[in-house]
Design a protein that fits this description.
Blueprint: H1 5-11, H2 28-48, H3 63-74, E1 100-103, H4 115-129, H5 136-145, H6 152-160, H7 171-197, E2 204-207, H8 215-218, H9 229-238, H10 250-254, H11 259-271, H12 278-288, H13 290-298, H14 302-319, H15 329-341, E3 353-356, E4 369-375, E5 380-385, E6 391-394, E7 400-404, E8 411-417, E9 422-427, E10 431-436, E11 442-448, E12 454-460, E13 465-470, E14 474-478, H16 480-485, E15 499-500, H17 507-510, E16 515-516, H18 522-531, E17 551-557, E18 562-567, E19 572-576, E20 582-586, E21 593-599, E22 604-609, E23 614-618, E24 623-628, E25 635-640, E26 647-652, E27 656-661, E28 666-672, E29 681-685, E30 690-694, E31 698-704, E32 719-723, E33 728-732, E34 736-741, E35 747-752, E36 758-763, E37 769-774, E38 779-783, E39 789-793, E40 800-806, E41 811-816, E42 821-825, E43 832-838, E44 845-851, E45 856-861, E46 866-870, E47 876-880, E48 887-892, E49 898-903, E50 907-912, E51 926-932, E52 943-951, E53 956-963, E54 967-972, H19 974-979, E55 997-1000, H20 1003-1014, E56 1031-1037, E57 1043-1050, E58 1053-1059, E59 1064-1067, E60 1073-1076, ...
Parallel strand pairs: 11-15, 43-55
Antiparallel strand pairs: 1-2, 3-31, 4-5, 5-6, 6-7, 8-9, 9-10, 10-11, 12-13, 13-14, 14-16, 17-18, 18-19, 19-20, 21-22, 22-23, 23-24, 25-26, 26-27, 27-28, 29-30, 30-31, 32-33, 33-34, 34-35, 36-37, 37-38, 38-39, 40-41, 41-42, 42-43, 44-45, 45-46, 46-47, 48-49, 49-50, 50-51, 52-53, 53-54, 54-56, ...
Helix pairs in contact: 6-7, 12-14, 12-21, 13-14
């Protein structure tokens, strides 16, 4: 969303202009309200562009963004910059370093802008910058020794001892410390007030610390007017004096360890016999990251210290993939290597590759293609040939569409205005012609441009004007609304005839001086423009200086509400699209600039020209960020590929096409266009993922990337799950799995599976291993962090239709179309089977459910039978009959002895099943209630997935269903619990998940059961609770195709769905879309987990910490004893 005109002018005001007349000073409250209004509008733009409070997305800045920010912070004061050198559209700190929120005092004195405050801020910054970090421990001890509650005099005396000898007794320095005391007390009072009220008041604005005039705080000298070490430590963190663990990731840091640190770390492993358990590993790693832990303790950041320890625990579990609680140096280093190989895997799904298109240009051209343009929204390619008085329109598939031939001279440029549906053509006969594309390209108006022909055009969507430029460098703005509704509308024109242009110029082009692209000196032009006294800062070319140049391209920068012009004078000039005001000039090219492109994803401008190089610019600031080399001929075109890909393609006259990554500045691909002697035109068609290169004919190249914008995968999704421990999502299609970071939404790892089509997958209880089942009957095990293959389990004879991990037992249950159920032992390196049951069904097994609480395994088949088996031996418990079509989904309703089932007919049934102990329900093995998932009054939709949600408060029982039409529905069955008399049952006791057994059911038995299930005498799902106990809560269209996964999670609370429409989506429980899994795109990532959430529950972490502290104590004692022994030996030697 572009900024409004007023906001754009505030954020992008030019340098010194005409001296304004003295104005009445606005009251302080009006100034604050105006500032707040501007900031609110900028924040709205950021939110609608997918940014959050920390900047353009939550992931770390790439090289392009870092270069932008470095340029911003190194340059002097500018209107576009916020406080402390941060651009409002590109913040780096989120106001957590060097700037923070303080309550506006709304003081009438205005002292916050005084020179005294400025000197105070500079002196405080100097003191903190030169504060000896090694003495922070001593400073904290002094705070504690003085009672950790310092008055202003005590704080001043204490801090004076930490200054240099030359500053001792400095009166100004003491005054600064007294003022600092007042500031800290006031900030603490504000924080307390905000926490009590639930947040800052309306009067809170963002201002620098040194600009806050806290006179009220100086009066506070009562019991609350004291400063603690925590308050001072908070200042050190906010001012960026120390940085503890902000954004710190141990795994990433370990992957970039210096060589000199590797050998000592290996020695630590050897001290523990190269077999570290969890506690020993944490102790060793704590010493490796001693600085971070010491700072956390020093600054009383207990939560950060616990987060660091949780990262170490998670790291150990990621490496100890087998769960044997032992880690060797070889396993540790192998993990780091594997991790390094997956660091940038998500970039592979954003890399665009070109290939020759099947669309061919088989038309005989009369001459060379002089210029070609893609008319966006009209979806046509417009071009004209050398010496030809005809404009040709083709489809993107290179099929001729129309020709416009009523020109007396050759066309020079063409533009399409979607708002008016006009095709605008400028010709060398000094005319602008407007054609109505909605009326068979009828000529609407022809305008005579008087003295010069217009060489280039650009329609501004933000300014709603048509900009054109001529060979003298003059830039004109045409009011197309006047063209449409002005006098003489609809008249007939003879050849070469047109209306006067001045009648249709926008106000910015009617008054002199006009906009002119010039190569004059910026500073001189500013002074001369100011001397005109017009009160309007216009373009440098308005001064009629010699050297006005030919303009070769105009390009709108919509985010900035600005336009760029480039020409043979080697410069790029930036203009305001509302006023025509010249903003700045970009200098750096050695020869003329021919083409430009603006990347909206990274907010950078890319230019190219006759010096063979591409330059990347910060358009906010007018500085070059990077120069790309690689072309060996003049560059004739640059195009951005997609709105979010962050990649551009450039073409030179020798026929070379190069794709560049703007994040790393790497050349991703180079193509040499065949059958081209001199490339003259280059066109990008983003909607068709195609580029066209033209000489005497068009050559088309199609491009693709591994993932479409705002789409999870290129293939239908068969399943998706979330692991709260690792904070990752896992999505799977038939050829691969993708591991997604739940914090950033980015792809972390890809696990390809080329042997056969994937049918199902699951993860272990720690989320460290992923088990992939396929169409061949195999089950392979992979590391979920790196994607590395670990082993294969013993397979089935046919396709595996379901796989479930048994938490606590380290077992895997698999079911297959070979009609068998197998319980595998996954804990050992070699594959092993505990037990299996064969001929469980007469036909293919379609689904499976497992209840650790009940000790039951349920399987469903297309033979319409549900088979219940005890988990410990796989012996038959009962067969549930009543469905008349194949079973599609099963789910146990824990902690009740109940089972939910669904079939192809859209029926959903709730069964009472045997409890592990105690009295059985009176309707055990029968249907309690049923309902039909109706898509309309006449038809039902098959339910593919079920998820019961039980809450003890109430109690409540909700059932979520996903169906073949893409709908999700939530059903309230809470009344069933009361009416049917269902009670939670005790979990199964005396558990033994490692029994060996083989159960063979005679084929005749399962065949007889299958015949009975479909026999007429077996009623269809006869219910035993007659009361109406089912109520639909809500429903929504979740996918445009079949829903294959539906899972409700409690921490955080959300609904995860996956479908055959290639999408994985995240919803609230009421059906409001939160976000989607996507490799890239415009949909922002909003998922309520943060990097500081370690995924470990507090009890587990406390238990680990206790054991770590014990190992720490033993290590310290051993080290002290060794030191004492060495001291005694040294004394004997000296004696």
């Amino acid at each position: 969303m572009p900024l409004s005109a007023s906001t754009s002018r505030k954020l992008d005001a030019p340098g010194p202009g005409p001296v304004p007349e003295p104005q009445r000073k606005q009251p302080q409250d009006e100034v604050l309200l105006e500032r707040r209004r501007v900031l609110k509008e900028v924040d709205l733009v950021l939110q609608q562009s997918g940014a959050d409070s920390t900047g353009i997305g939550s992931a770390g800045h790439g090289p392009t963004m870092k270069a932008l920010l470095n340029q911003c912070t190194k340059t002097s004061l500018a209107p576009e910059m916020a406080h402390q050198g941060e651009h409002r559209l590109l913040p780096t700190s989120g106001m957590s370093r060097g700037e923070h929120l303080v309550r506006s005092r709304l003081a009438s004195t205005g002292a916050g802008d005084s020179a005294s405050d400025s000197r105070y801020g500079l002196r405080l910054d100097a003191f903190l910058r030169h504060l000896d970090k090694d003495r922070l421990g001593e400073l904290k001890e002094r705070f504690i020794a003085m009672g950790n509650a310092l008055t202003s005099e005590e704080l001043a005396d204490l801090l004076a001892g930490f200054t240099g000898p030359a500053d001792q007794g400095n009166a100004e320095l003491k005054e600064m410390f007294l003022r600092l005391h007042a500031q800290l007390v006031a900030d603490e009072a504000d924080s307390a007030g905000d926490s009590e009220s639930g947040g800052p008041d309306v009067g809170v604005v963002a201002v620098p610390v040194e600009a806050a005039f806290l006179t009220e705080a100086k009066e506070t000298e009562g019991p609350e007017g004291v400063v603690t070490w925590t308050m001072f430590a908070k200042l050190l963190l906010e001012r960026g004096v120390v940085d503890v663990v902000g954004g710190f990731n141990i795994v990433t840091v370990l992957g970039h360890l210096d060589l000199e640190k590797i050998a000592p770390l290996q020695d630590e492993f050897k001290q523990y016999r190269n077999a570290l358990n969890l506690e020993e590993f944490v102790v060793v790693m704590k010493r490796q990251f001693r600085h971070s832990f010491e700072l956390a303790r020093l600054l009383d950041l207990h939560g950060e210290e616990r987060r660091l320890l949780a990262q170490l625990v998670n790291l150990f579990e990621m490496i100890d993939i087998g769960g044997k609680n032992s880690l060797s140096w070889e396993e540790f280093t192998s993990f780091l290597v594997d991790q390094g190989m997956t660091e940038d895997v998500h970039r592979e799904f954003n890399i665009i590759r070109f290939s020759r298109s099947t669309s061919r240009d088989d038309v005989a051209h009369t001459s060379y293609v002089e210029k070609a343009v893609y008319l966006k929204n009209y979806d046509k390619v417009a071009f004209f040939e050398q010496g030809c008085r005809c404009l040709k329109l083709w489809t993107p598939d290179l099929v001729p569409y129309r020709e416009i031939r009523d020109f007396t001279q050759t066309p020079l440029c063409v533009e399409y205005i979607d708002r008016y549906m006009y095709v605008v053509v400028a010709c060398s006969d000094l005319t602008l012609s407007f054609y109505d594309s909605d009326n068979n390209l009828k000529l609407v108006r022809r305008v005579n441009t008087e003295k010069t022909a217009q060489l280039v055009m650009c329609w501004s969507e933000v300014g709603q004007v048509l900009f054109t430029a001529d060979h003298e460098g003059r830039i004109f703005a045409t009011d197309v609304n006047a063209v449409k509704f002005g006098a003489g509308f609809g008249r007939s024109y003879e050849a070469g005839q047109g209306d006067p242009w001045r009648d249709f110029l926008a106000p910015m082009s009617r008054s002199e001086p006009s906009m002119r692209h010039s190569d004059g000196d910026d500073n001189r032009l500013r002074r001369e423009a100011t001397s005109l006294g017009s009160g309007r800062m216009t373009g440098p070319g308005s001064l009629k200086v010699p050297g006005g140049s030919i303009v070769l391209m105009l390009l709108e920068l919509p985010v900035l509400a600005q336009m760029a012009s480039c020409g043979v004078d080697r410069n790029v000039m930036i203009w305001d699209v509302f006023t025509g005001v010249w903003k700045r000039t970009l200098r750096g090219h050695e020869m003329g600039v021919r083409c430009m492109a603006f990347a909206t994803s990274t907010k950078v401008l890319v230019t190219g020209g006759f010096d063979y190089k591409l330059m990347v610019w910060n358009p906010y600031w007018g500085k070059s960020i990077h120069t790309l080399h690689g072309h060996a001929a003049p560059i004739i075109g640059i195009e951005v590929l997609g709105s979010s890909a962050g990649q551009v393609v450039s073409a030179d006259s020798a026929g070379s096409l190069k794709t560049w990554d703007l994040a790393t500045y790497q050349c991703l691909q180079t193509i040499v266009v065949e059958d081209v002697l001199n490339l003259r035109a280059f066109v990008s068609i983003p909607s068709h993922k195609r580029v066209l290169a033209a000489d005497r004919k068009f050559v088309a190249y199609d491009y693709q990337n591994n993932g479409m914008a705002d789409q999870t995968d290129e293939a239908p999704i068969i399943k998706a799950i979330y692991n709260p421990r690792l904070k990752v999502f896992i999505s799977g299609c038939m050829s691969h799995l993708r591991i997604w970071d739940a914090v950033t939404g980015a792809i972390k790892c890809v696990i390809p599976h080329k042997d056969s089509e994937i049918t199902d997958f699951c993860v272990d209880d720690r989320g460290r291993k992923v088990f992939i089942a396929d169409h061949n009957g195999d089950v392979s095990v992979h590391n979920s962090t790196t994607g590395c293959f670990i082993k294969k389990l013993i397979g089935h004879k046919k396709e595996v239709s379901g796989v479930i991990y048994c938490t606590g037992d380290r077992n895997i249950i698999t079911v297959s179309w070979d009609k068998s159920v197998v319980v595998h032992d996954e804990s050992q390196e070699a594959p092993k089977i505990w037990r299996q049951a064969v001929n469980v069904h007469h036909d293919d097994i379609s689904c499976v459910a497992f209840s650790h609480h009940l000790g039951l395994v349920a399987t469903g088949s297309i033979d319409c039978v549900i088979s219940l088996r005890e988990y410990e031996r796989l012996r038959t418990v009962s067969s549930l009959l009543g469905h008349k079509t194949g079973i599609t989904a099963l789910a146990f309703v824990e902690p009740y002895a109940a089972l939910a089932s669904a079939d192809f007919g859209g029926n959903v049934a709730i069964w009472s099943v045997p409890a592990p102990s105690g009295k059985q329900h009176r309707f055990v093995n029968h249907v309690l209630t049923r309902f039909i998932n109706m898509m309309s009054l006449e038809a039902s939709a098959s339910v593919n997935c079920l998820n019961p949600v039980y809450e003890a408060a109430g109690p409540t029982f909700h059932l979520y269903t996903g169906d073949e039409d893409g709908d999700v529905r939530a059903w309230d069955l809470s009344q069933l619990l009361t009416v049917a008399g269902l009670e939670p049952c005790a979990p199964k006791a005396d558990w033994d998940g490692w029994k060996k057994d083989i159960v063979e059911i005679p084929a005749s038995t399962t065949a007889a059961i299958a015949r009975k299930a479909v026999a007429p005498e077996t009623p269809e799902l006869k219910i035993h609770v007659e009361a109406q106990v089912v109520r639909q809560l809500c429903s929504w269209r979740a996918h445009s195709d079949s829903v294959r996964t539906l899972k409700v999670y409690s921490s955080p609370q959300f609904v995860l769905t996956a479908g055959y429409d290639h999408m994985v989506k995240i919803w609230t429980l009421e059906g409001q879309l939160l976000t989607v899994l996507r490799a890239y795109g415009q949909i922002p990532w909003h998922f309520p987990v943060g990097p500081d959430m370690d995924g470990l529950d507090e009890d587990t972490l406390d238990e680990v910490l206790e054991r770590v502290q014990e190992v720490d104590r033993k290590y310290d004692l051993a080290k002290a004893a060794m030191g004492g022994a060495r001291g005694g030996a040294a004394a004997l030697t000296d004696g």
